[in-house]
Write a structure and sequence with these properties.
By secondary structure, this protein is of the alpha/beta class. About 30% of the residues lie in helices and about 20% in strands. Helix 8 runs parallel beside helix 10.
Length: about 290
């Protein structure tokens, strides 16, 4: 278990859907390997108490994964070093409820399932995820429906063998590189491939890449559209995690078309980690200023 992790608190918004099961597995596995607390947030627009018997089962899942013995009680979670809290936000708009709880719980990472809404359906049913990408305050790990995750939900097994980090001169890619490395070290203690991808005609950015004896670390320079290059390269391996630093949507064109990070997560077939520009262990003032 990591004791010096920059991720000390993980927030998992859940609607008890099938899509949210993969997000739950990833959030729980990251909590165990990073030594982070885990908060499960159920948002209900009507003003009544949620039936958590339908919700994700932390203790039962850890028993199934072999992390706890069959006769483990709730106190066993504490002995394992895991702190779990369940919260219901009743009578609130989902996005605002998530943002409010992010501040209240001092979350360092939000893990969310996406529902893959595209085309007309995307406009008719605005995604709860989209605002998190438009103005990211803390890192957000997004799980696509039916995608290639890096945690097997039934066994908890690690499948993280290839990480792709998109890098450019602006915004500074260091936050995404550092957090992707931290997650990879904790979740995948064995060998993996860590690829830094730069798209465009400019020289490869001056970045600090991981130096791990069991890792294959590579720089890739590709021409063309950044979004297309990221998605094509991630699909060709395939990647188990894409990481990007994002400033959110900061122009009229971004608002109409979506930011690079937003367009990648809407089409990617693996989890996407979006890290706010300037985010770091000692730089989380954006969250506290909300």
């Amino acid at each position: 278990m990591t004791t010096s992790s920059s991720i000390r608190s993980i927030l998992l918004p859940t609607d008890f859907s099938n899509e949210s099961q993969s997000a739950f597995a990833h959030a729980l596995r990251l909590a165990t390997v990073l030594g982070a607390s885990l908060e499960l947030l159920y948002v209900e627009s009507e003003n009544y108490k949620a039936d958590w018997s339908w919700g994700p089962k932390v203790r039962q899942t850890l028993i199934q994964w072999g992390e706890l013995p069959e006769d483990a009680d709730d106190d066993a979670l504490a002995r394992l070093g895991i702190s779990v809290r369940s919260v219901t936000a009743a009578g609130k708009e989902p996005t605002q409820a998530i943002m409010d709880e992010m501040v209240a719980s001092h979350a360092d990472l939000i893990v969310m399932a996406t529902h893959g809404r595209v085309g007309l359906d995307r406009w008719l049913q605005p995604s709860v995820v989209a605002p998190m990408v438009k103005r990211p305050m803390v890192p957000v790990l997004l799980l696509p429906p039916g995608g290639l995750g890096f945690v097997e939900p039934n066994s908890g097994a690690n499948m993280l063998d290839h990480v792709l980090v998109a890098v450019d001169n602006l915004p500074d890619p260091s936050p995404a590189l550092k957090l992707a490395e931290e997650i990879a070290v904790a979740a995948s203690p064995g060998a993996l491939t860590f690829s830094a991808l730069h798209v465009g005609k400019t020289e490869f950015p001056d970045v600090v890449l991981p130096k791990r004896p069991d890792w294959k670390v590579e720089q890739i320079h590709a021409p063309g559209s950044a979004v297309e290059a990221i998605l094509n390269l991630a699909a060709s391996w395939p990647a188990r995690l894409i990481a990007m630093t994002s400033e959110g949507e900061n122009s009229l064109l971004d608002t109409l078309r979506g930011s690079h990070a937003g367009r990648v997560f809407s089409e990617a077939r693996c989890p996407v980690l979006i890290v706010p520009a300037g985010w770091g262990i000692e730089n989380r003032t954006g969250r506290e200023a909300l």
